[in-house]
Amino acid sequence: MGLQKCRGCLSCFLIPLALWSIVINVLLYFPDGKTLYASSNNLTNYVWYFEGICFSGIMMLLLAALLIILDREIFPRCCESESCTKTYRSVISVVLSLLGVAFSGYSLIMSTLGLVQGSYCKTPSGWEYIFKDTPGSYLMDRTSWSECSEPAYVVEWNIILFSILIALSGLQMLICFLKVIAELKRILCGTYPVFIQPGLI
Fold first, then answer.
1. CA distance 25 to 28
2. Could you give the residue ranges of the DSSP H alpha helices within the chain?
3. Cα–Cα distance for residue pair 186/87, rounded to 1 Å
4. Long-range contacts of 93-98 (CB under 8 A, 24+ apart)
5. HSE-up (13 A, CA, CB side) for residue 128
6. What are the structural domain ranges in the chain?
7. For 15-70, what is each residue's pLDDT tens digit?
8. What pTM did the predictor assign?
9. Quick check: 14 and 60 in contact, CB under 8 A?
10. Is the Cα torsion angle 177, 70, 4, 183 positive or negative in sign?
11. What parts of the sequence cross the membrane (predicted)?
């Protein structure tokens, strides 16, 4: 019973993480609280990969819902043996959890690349990726952030939000990985009765 509850909790944890990913990704479109930068396409290109909205957001919500259904005892039986049904449920859960690892991994990679590349902002030379050749070292050089004059505080805005997305997708990845381990353990420890007939023991 404890293992059942644990597996169910892992799936439920994905829902708030996915909702927060959507919110954080949406906020990236409104630096300085204004919409004009999105409408004029003056945003870092990595916000257009929809990593937080689609992959660690909507897709993760769908996966979490399916995993929760699979964790419930109300899931219909797919074969005559109860242990066989549980095995098939675990196999489906493993596949879905691996998809979760892929989706959250994509979000993690895109958010990391966005953080390393730096903000697209207005400088004395015009709109440009002023930090793209610094391979992330600008993160430790706060004095260089002032070179971005518009949007206001865009460097801090992107650093904070991309860092949160990295943390959220990292947690999702960890939960999905733990889910894979738990279901594989259940399959390996629970399928023996399915294949061994009582008369042969």
1. 5
2. 2-27, 36-39, 59-71, 82-117, 154-190, 192-195
3. 8
4. 93/67, 93/179, 93/183, 94/180, 94/183, 94/184, 94/187, 96/63, 96/66, 96/67, 96/70, 97/63, 97/67, 97/176, 97/177, 97/179, 97/180, 97/183, 98/176, 98/180
5. 9
6. 2-72+93-189
7. 999 999 999 999 999 999 999 999 999 999 999 999 999 999 999 999 999 999 88
8. 0.86
9. yes
10. negative
11. 12-31, 46-70, 91-109, 159-178
Sequence-distant (≥ 6) Cβ neighbours of residue 161 within 8 angstroms: 24, 27, 28
Q: Tell me the two tokens of residue 48.
A: 């257009």
Residue 3, CA distances (Å) to 8, 64, 150, 185 in order: 9, 18, 52, 11
**From the centroid of its chain, how far is CA 55?**
6
State whether the Cα torsion 118-162-97-95 is positive or negative.
Answer: negative
Reported residue count of the chain is 201
